[in-house]
Amino acid sequence: MRLSVDPVVLSLLALAGLLYVRALGILRRRNLRVSRGQQACWWIGIALLTIGLNGPIDAYDDRLLSVHMAQHQLIGDLAAPFLLAGVRSPLLLFYLPRPALVALARRRWLRSAFRVLRRPLVALPVWVLTTYAWHISALFEGALRHPPLHALQHECFLAANLLLWWPVLEPQRRRMGGQLWKIGYIFAARMSTMFLGMVFVFSRGVLYAGVYGTGPREGLSALSDQQTAGGTMMSLDIAIMAIAACWFFWVASREYDREEAPTLPTQQRPERPLAGNVSER
Predict the structure, then answer these.
(1) Is residue 1 part of a domain?
(2) How confident is the model at residue 264 (pLDDT cuts 50, 70, 90)?
C-alpha cells in the first residue's frame, strides 16, 4: 500500500490545532465554557482533513478517480461543517491572535465582501459554481499534473463548503429566522451536485482519461472506478440531506415547543392566620 505524508499540510493542521487550544485557554481564564461536543466537532474536522490530505487517500488520488472524489468529500463536504460547528462563538472571537483580528477588522472591503458572500442566496451559487468549475476536464486534470494547482483546488473546495455551511450553522450565533428553510437550502445544494454524480454513474465514456487512462486501475476497470466515484458522491448527498432534514426538524420542533409553552400562573401565597386566638362565643 502506498502512503503519502505532506509535512506542510501537517504543519498547518498542527498550527490550526494550537490556535484552537490557545483560544480554549483564553476562554477558560474568562470563565467561559465551550462544550465538549463543540470541541469534539473541531477535532473531528481536523482529523478528516488529516486523513484526506495524507496517507493512502492522497497517495492514490492520481491512480483512482473514486479515491480522488473521496478525498474531495472528506476535505469539503465532511470536514467543513465539523470545523464550523467547533469554532462557534465565543471561541470564534478568540481563535486568531489579536493583531490578526485587528488587521482583518480594519479592512472594510473584506468585511463587506464577506457579509455579501455568506448570504444563503449568494453562498449557494458560489459553492455550485466552484464545484462544477473544478470538475471541468482542463482544471481537474491540470490539478493532478501540477501540485500547486491541486493545493488550490483543495483550498477552494474547503472555502466554498465553509461558505455554504456558514448561514446554516451560524458560527457567530447571529441567528436567521426559522430553521425549516435550512432543509430546503441543503436539499438544493446537494441535489445540484447529485447531478454531477449521476454523470459519473451513467456516462458510457471514460472521463479524465488524460490522467487516469482508459485501462484497468488498481484492479478496477475505468468505468467501474468512475461509477464508484459517482455512486459515492450521490450516497453522501442523500445522507447529508436526510441528516439535515431530521436535525432541523428536531430543532424547529424544540423551538416551537418553547415558544408555545403556556406560562404557569404564579401561585398565590396562602393567607397567614391572624395573630392571637379567636374565642368562639
Answers:
(1) no
(2) very low
